[in-house]
Amino acid sequence: MKPTGDPDPLPPALSSIWRLCKLGYRHEPRMMLAAFVLSQLAALPDALLALWLALLGRGVLGHRPRLVLAAAIGLGATATATWFLRTVSTRVQRRFRDRVTIALESHVARLQASVATIAHHERPEYLDRLAMLRDQVFVLDHMYMSVFETCGWILRLGVTVALLVSIHPALALLAVAALPTVVTATWRPGVERVAQERAAAHDRLARHLFTVATTAASGKEVRVAGIGAQLVARRRETWGRGHAPVAAVRWASAAWHALAWAVFGLAYVGAIAFVALGMRAPAASVLLVLAAGSRLSMYVGATVGELGFLRGFWVYGARRLAWLEDYAAAAHQAADLPAPDALRDGIRLERVSFAYPGTTRLVLDDVSLALPAGAVVAIVGENGAGKSTLVKLLAKLYEPTSGAIYLDDVPLARVRPDAWRTRLTGAFQDFFRFELRARHAVGLGDVRHLDDAEPVGRAVARAGADDVVARLPAGLDTQLGAGWPEGVDVSFGQWQKLALARGFMRDRPLLLVLDEPTAALDAETEHALFERYVAASRGANDEGRVTVLVSHRFSTVRMADLIVVMDGARVVEVGSHDALVRRGGPYAELYGIQAAAYR
Q1: CATH 1.20.1560.10 corresponds to the domain 13-331
Q2: Number of CB atoms found within 10 A of residue 574's CB
Q3: Ordered DSSP codes for 444-511
Q4: pLDDT tens per residue across span 451-493
Q5: According to CATH, what is the number of the domain 346-423+509-598?
Q6: Which residue numbers delimit the ABC transporter domain (predicted)?
Q7: So where are the chain's domains?
Q8: Which of 17, 106, 458, 537 has the fewest CB neighbours in a 10 Å radius?
Q9: If you average pLDDT over residues 118-126, what whole number do you get?
């Protein structure tokens, strides 16, 4: 793991676009080819408009009726073909976009879900990238249309330049004069996007403040504390701090872009003067230069705009998608072993240290610990001691910075994450509220039995959540979440019990982790739940299951077989409750303080 705060660099823009194009072709090859071909065919008639106007002028001035008729028919055919091809192309492109959007959204979700660890969900610079990708994934399908349109505008430019060169080769310089606009158009979005990336943290904070000020979850505290005005003012201030440097960059880049267009405008005027006065060309040739030059101006503007559009938004979405693909591929560890069927000796940590990615501060420092097979282990310590981090390492949500974890004699790093997760279950304090049917909100703990009433009912009973289900209008078939039709809202404690039931869905895990999952419940209820489950763990436990409890309530952890006391990222004491109390160390002191408070 890198101890620096610098994120991995984004892949190059062109290769990212190419990878996105290949992704679209893989999912919708026929529709993609049809959309591309039709977009190019639709570009040709429009590019020939200047030619028909020149022929029409030549026919009128030369009194040649047949030429006038042919030019008029050409103009009519061009208009008809342009309308027809654009209509068909638009419909095909819309169908292609609808299909490829679903594929892209699924692809992004699958990539994030396939990463075994959660560093990309907790590292700020990665969160910024993922936030921008989430905002853009729903419109990444436009990138295909933008690529097709760019090719169409370039085709128009090629035909128009050929028409100008037919008058005089020097007129090709008019296209050269357009290069500064191309340069500034491709440069502008880049510098603007860098400024936006730097302001992403301010933008995320502004959105968070808006959510806090406008949603029901925080509504009570916002009103009781009377902080609505402060939230609004701070959001405005935060947005201003993020927007000010972006606005400054946009003004500067706009000035350079305007200067580039001034160069092209002078070249266009010079080309007309050169043909009309310098060459003394016939009126039809001057008309061709006027028409082709004006079309060239329009085509250059459209091409430049499309390139800027492509680079300024879709390229950056494509680069973040390519980065996520590379990150997900790199995160796949060299794990080739299945999870064991049972534990003989237990789980062992040998000199494990850990620092979160992007930081150098050790959250766990040289931790060596043995969790015996079949034991109930409680982990205690003050906030920030490393308890939850230790749980994350056991669940393979992170890999140790140094040291190793063993399942018996098998390194956990060699065990496939998906295989280990099937033998792991648990509940956490920071659980997620799945606003689904109550049956599914619990059944997600073991998707094989998502719709099976009996396993879900057993999990509810283990978690002591029968009272929660009994109060739901339709029992386990009740839709959770007040924001849905027929949905009901439940209290935080009820959500926590349902989350605990979800963690009890698997019958025979090798590791059960309970990381303060009952913090919202009263001490008596927590004690009863843990006592019941500890008794079950000490009963039929042929697989050697290890149960890890994390709690601040010493009345609960005293029932554990082994208590691990953590302080300052280190393990300072290990032993049973009675042994640790007799020792008179940190555990005895903390237990005494809490016991006195209860008395």
Answers
A1: yes
A2: 16
A3: GGGGGGTT-HHHHHHHHHHTT-HHHHHHSTTGGGPBB-TTSTT-B---HHHHHHHHHHHHT--SS-SE
A4: 888 889 988 988 888 889 999 999 999 999 887 888 888 888 8
A5: 3.40.50.300
A6: 347-593
A7: 13-331, 346-423+509-598, 433-501
A8: 106
A9: 70
